[in-house]
Write a structure and sequence with these properties.
By secondary structure, the chain is of the alpha/beta class. It is built from 14 helices and 13 strands. It binds pyridoxal-5'-phosphate (PLP).
Length: 399
């Protein structure tokens, strides 16, 4: 037998420590994961954990687009990064369709949202610059900031006064290059960034503004253009990021903005330059999905109606909700152990909803995060609310 080395020992200890704090995570095998009801170990589970908000991941038109792309001879994989061999016509068409939809001068497709955030932040910012970031921004934003080496000013969640205090501090230090970055919809709370106030501060203090619309494109506003468009301030946002992995039901991401900014990213964003392009088959599916997203106003209305009902019912049961305005609807339970127990009971009762624990959320703020899809049946949602309430009583988190 191989001797246990120092690293094996350390990893075992770390995993043991996580288990003691109820922070262990498991990978689960599921089938039919694009559907509102999926299967796990032969059991049907109502999928209340998916980012596939409009139900497009399982849409027959996307399967058609993929089939047609293969029949046209599109490869399963791209030949290289885009700056080496180049890209197919489909990619150029997609980027111009995205620009039309976003009413921006140009867009650039990235491998995924994580890479887009890393690329944008590390190419705009460097040592000596300042970045102002909501404390609850997504991990990919935090990692992009780390990679940039810029001074990181974290402001309290949605607190524009705190943001302004930091902007003033940076001005006093004579820092000229400033970027404000925020999620439009916060992924663990489902609430919205105060974008209008942020735009006011960005202009007052001469900062650039980068908005991550991962959970808002496809879900918010006419044609699913996202929160900045819905608020009428899209032009004041310098760069927008949106993913294709959530409401679009595919994979990948884009950044939209002024032409020269996008040209600059092509020259400097390392997570764009040093990686193979998205598969042409995926690009075709994204193009089809963009059409469905643009035509999806009725789906969005139906989703919004379901979300309102779900939030109101859970609140009436006595659960502590966040200020969610979106299909992300968490109930905050506090301790990781209670949250884990709650989530396990949900699975036993046929509901898939994960326990979100530190470090993803703050200590003492562990939660079960539900997310709704337009394709959920009303009857299934009603039945889920009944079961969630019952488990709430069992676990003594409501009275
Ligand atoms: C707010 C936010 N930004 C970025 C990402 C990363 O996007 P992707 O899944 O496309 O990498 C996610 C989710 O994963 C997210 O929730």
């Amino acid at each position: 037998m191989r001797a246990v080395n120092h690293w094996d020992h350390w990893i075992e200890e770390e995993l043991g420590r996580m288990a003691e704090q109820d922070l262990t995570r498991e990978l689960r095998v599921v089938t039919e994961s694009a559907q509102p009801v999926c299967l796990h170990e032969g059991k049907s589970l109502l999928n209340l954990s998916s980012n596939n908000y409009l139900g497009l991941a399982g849409h027959p038109q996307l399967a058609d687009a993929i089939r047609q792309a293969i029949e046209r001879g599109a490869g399963a994989g791209a030949p290289s990064s885009r700056l080496i061999v180049g890209h197919e016509e489909e990619t150029a068409r997609l980027e111009s369709e995205l620009a039309n939809w976003q009413e921006s001068e140009a867009t650039l497709v990235f491998g995924n949202g994580y890479m887009a955030n890393l690329g944008v932040l590390s190419s705009l910012l460097g040592r000596g610059d300042a970045v102002f970031s909501d404390r609850f921004n997504h991990a990919s934003i935090v990692d992009g900031i780390r990679l940039s080496g810029a001074t990181h000013y974290r402001y309290r969640h949605r607190d524009v006064d705190h943001l302004e205090t930091h902007l003033k501090k940076a001005d006093q230090k004579g820092i000229g290059r400033k970027v404000i970055v925020t999620d439009a919809v916060f992924s663990m709370d489902g609430d919205l960034a105060p974008l209008q106030e942020i735009v006011y501060l960005k202009e007052r203090y001469g900062a650039a503004l980068f908005v991550d619309e991962a959970h808002s494109v496809g879900v918010i506003g006419a044609q699913g253009r996202g929160l900045a468009h819905e608020l009428g301030i899209a032009e004041q946002v310098d760069l927008h990021m949106g993913t294709f992995s959530k409401a679009f039901g595919v994979y990948g991401a884009y950044v939209a903005g002024r032409r020269e900014w996008i040209r600059y990213l092509i020259h400097t964003a390392r997570s764009f330059i040093y990686t193979t392009a998205l598969s042409p088959v995926i690009i075709s599916a994204i193009r089809r999905s963009l059409q469905l997203v643009q035509q999806g106003d009725l789906l969005r209305q139906d989703l919004a109606r379901k979300c309102l009902y779900f939030r109101e019912e859970l609140s009436q049961c006595g659960f502590r909700l966040t200020h969610s305005m979106t299909p992300i609807i968490p109930i905050v339970l506090g301790e990781s152990s209670t949250t884990l127990q709650f989530s396990r009971r949900l699975v036993e009762c046929g509901i898939l909803a994960v326990a979100i624990r530190p470090p993803t959320v703050l200590r003492g703020e562990a939660r079960v995060r539900f997310s709704l899809m337009a394709s959920h049946r009303d009857g299934d949602v009603q039945e889920a609310i009944r079961k969630i309430g019952q488990i709430g009583h069992e676990c003594k988190v409501i009275t």
